[in-house]
Automatic annotation (TrEMBL), chain A:
TM helices/strands, residue ranges: 6-39, 72-88, 109-141, 153-176, 188-209, 229-250, 257-277, 297-314, 326-351, 357-376, 388-414, 434-455
Record bears the keyword Cell membrane: yes
Name of the protein in question: TRAP transporter large permease protein
Pfam family, one: DctM
Chief site of localization: membrane
Molecular function GO labels: transmembrane transporter activity
Subunit structure: The complex comprises the extracytoplasmic solute receptor protein and the two transmembrane proteins.
Highest taxon of the lineage: Bacteria
Species per Swiss-Prot/TrEMBL record: Neptunomonas concharum
Protein family: Belongs to the TRAP transporter large permease family.
Automatic annotation (TrEMBL), chain C:
Coiled-coil ranges (or none): none
Full protein name: TRAP transporter small permease protein
Annotated transmembrane regions: 23-44, 60-76, 97-119, 139-160
Membrane topology: Multi-pass membrane protein
One GO location term (cellular component): plasma membrane
PANTHER family assigned to the protein according to its UniProt record, in alphabetical order: 2,3-DIKETO-L-GULONATE TRAP TRANSPORTER SMALL PERMEASE PROTEIN YIAM (PTHR35011), SLL1102 PROTEIN (PTHR35011:SF4)
Function, as annotated: Part of the tripartite ATP-independent periplasmic (TRAP) transport system.
Matches recorded under InterPro entries: DctQ, TRAP_DctQ
Organism listed in the record: Neptunomonas concharum
Amino acid sequence: MDANEIMVIAMFLSFIALLFTGIPVAWVLGGIGIIFAFIGQFSDTYFDTITGLDYTTLGLVVNRLWKIMDNWILVALPMFIFMGIMLDKSGVAEKLMHSMQELFGRVRGGLAVTVTAIGIILAASTGIIGASVVLLAVMSLPSMTKQGYAMPLALGTIASAGTLGILIPPSIMLVIMADQLGLSVGDLFMGAVFPGLMLGAMYIVYILIYGLVKPEAAPVPVDAKPVDLTIVLNVLKAVLPTVLLIFVVLGSIFGGFATPTEASGVGALGATLLAIYNRKFNFTVLKEVMGGTLNTTAYIFAIFIGATCFALVLRELGGDELIESFLTGLPFGPYGIIFFILGVIFLLGFFLDWIEITLIILPLLAPVISALGLEINGYGVVDNPQLVWFVMLVAMTLQTSFLTPPVGFALFYLKGVCPPNVKLTDIYKGVIPFIALQLVALLILVFWPQLVLWLPANAYG
Amino acid sequence: ADKILLKTPIAFGSHLPALGTPIVWVSEQLNLVSDGKIKMKIYEPGKLVSPPEILDAVSSGKVNSGYATAGYWQGKMPAAALFSAVPFGPEAGEYMAWMYYGNGLKLYQEMYDNGGYNVKVIPCAIISPETSGWFKKPIEKPEDLQGLNMRFFGLGASVMEKLGVSTSQLPGGEIFGALEKGAIDASEFSQPAIDQRLGFHKIVKYNYFPGWHQQATIFELLVNKDAWGKMSKGQQATVENTCKASMTNAIAEGEAMQFPVMAKAKEQGVEIRYWNETMLKTFEQKWDEVASEKSAADPFFKKVWDDLSTFREGYDLWESNAFLPRSR
Amino acid sequence: MTENDTLPSVPLADKIDRFIQRIGMSVAWCYVLLVLVIILQVVLRKGFSSGLIIFEELQWHLYAVGVMFGLSYAQTTNSHIRVDLFYTHFRARTKHIIEIIGILTLVLPFIAIVFMHSIDFFVDSYRINESSDSPSGLPFRWIIKGVIPVSFALLGLAVLSRLYRDTVLLLRGE
Ligand code: NA
Ligand code: NA
């Protein structure tokens, strides 16, 4: 093993180790990049290696940082975040919860189904995981507790439904993936529609079956009213503005009327109008939304910036080629390699979140996947179909990273708003079946790529 | 130095025929010709640094060389585009004549020196005409261009702007998506064989010729001057002559592969059109306006433009007598 | 996690943080502006199709300003993502020590490198009065390039404030 390879491995190991000190991920990435660049320079000077790293070369970090700033695809990101936080404040979700609860009132597990349905709607309107999980928990956990739901079921439903937004478009994760791999944002958004809806549907079916098998875990409320026309109308009235917003944002992207960036701006405005319509808008709210957007965008981009430094040094050391040749050299055959990669991402998802995996790992995998030579049907329309399909597999896998302990964002958010008597182990127990469902969904996608590619292929016709 | 490693970020993916393939050829040849004393490691676009940052990276020594085309730097130095491709400008033979046996190369280096860039420039590939662009609808008269959003490169972009087109200079990889989503209505990129790789024919059907904006395009190898100074005379000559050989190789490759692709495009329903007289006249007239405006705004642009124009006026006597008329 | 475990007050550090947050909140208006510019562009594109390049570039200018100045803001709100699996269980003293070592060995070197190189990057752009490479794009590209050193200086300040806070708290034994 030569010096460069040792340094590549040492980089990864020190990254994982330092991560657990609790120092912010972004600075761990950036700092390790700097330290290893100087190790490389030292080694070039005294040990006759050729890393080519030194203080001057590190200046490329600034050029790379500049390309993050000068990027018209990523402009959509703060806008979708703005939209999400504004919707969170707009009172739309409360209205939905209130009216839909009555609609499903007499169904066993109806409240949990309601939570999932609203999770899907929130996901399709923006998909800020933190906001969705907190919102769903605050709105539904007290009534689920009151109705006597089994705690694990209630918690698992909330966490999983709140996480749907990362997959169902618009999704900031898919925007970043498209940017990293040079794919069309629109293709990824469309590719994610069926997988996302399928996952949501699987959740609902699971809840209904669970209610049948274990009636005491998902009781029907005693005071449930029969469904009448007024209830249905109320639901429609509550759903309509949000559906309109979804239609405008996703419809304009899919219909080719607007770029994702334009749609994100329109969505941000739409969410603001909804807040005004619901009389929730004022200067304080606007300032909160602005501050929240500034903050959330910044902590995501900090990781971008740290990761670009890490990736630069990794590439200078030849880390790309190393990982590529390792993966392509695996004796598993194409599907074996794909399962291996997904397995690794699943495991990484226990400790890392989607941002790091998307920024550091995903770009390393793209050439490997292209080299597998899989015949994935893009119907002659979708550009680079096997990569689009693979990205969706990764996206589905990363969906689980939100739910897998110890580092699962959805779990943390949920714990943050739960009453103190709810134990973390309840949450863990609750999400296990949903993680299993995600793995099933993943398997379906692996063997049925049409689920991903049919829509983007046919929408353009 | 005994051995040298040129770390070379490139502006075009090495899989793109004629845009990216020449530098791969150069790196292979350098290794052979120098008996392994000169190595060139190529970094695909964006791997180390993205295309628009290559000049800065080479000049500051963050990498010791880079492969791009000068048109990328026209935001930094307006004259740069003249060393990349000139609208209604010379074809490859004439362009090389000016470059190597006129003042071209001297002015080319002078531009970087004046701009304070610490680089040695070596022309390292040249390709024949590009297509004039892909459109969603036929363009019969200048008014048909009014209001279009178009990806356009180099000096031709200013001409299009004068005709009411909004232009942007998207990198190759982003064009398809922008076109597909309607962010742009039309695009030029390169030669048929390259455009075909990017899949424009799937979305837009009208492919116009001739590429009045790029009758010939030169690509450059930039080498950091300090790194250049450390090379021996022999190594310097090896790099320069390999690049000169690459000019021959690139144009031969480019000339060989366009017609099969165009024939296939026709089968796929692409309309191959030739600009009518009015359109070509209009483009040329607007280009004359742009050239005089740019000359007025930037003294160095004027210097290069005047020199090239003088050369071309002289060449005209030869050109108009030497060649057979082209058949259409 | 994004949870803001508020640290005890340290007067000087508090003052610096408040200063940075004030700057951040003023910069945050660029996102509202961004919404408006996008809407304007949509209207112009669909309605009139003119002046688009400027708006397209203005969009990423605004986005970039928000992102870069947000870094220091998020630092003062302690929002940068941490893997807090063990971190939450550490004693306050351990946390202070980790924070101090982390800042000195990882964060400050990173910020210093980016800051120093970004000055050259900015100066080069200023020297040649760089403008957009689109003929009808925005001029004065060096202004937006200048955002890098300024925002990183501010980030550096925010990190130094944190360093000072942790050192004081460690010495105080809190
Ligand atoms: Na979403
Ligand atoms: Na996890």
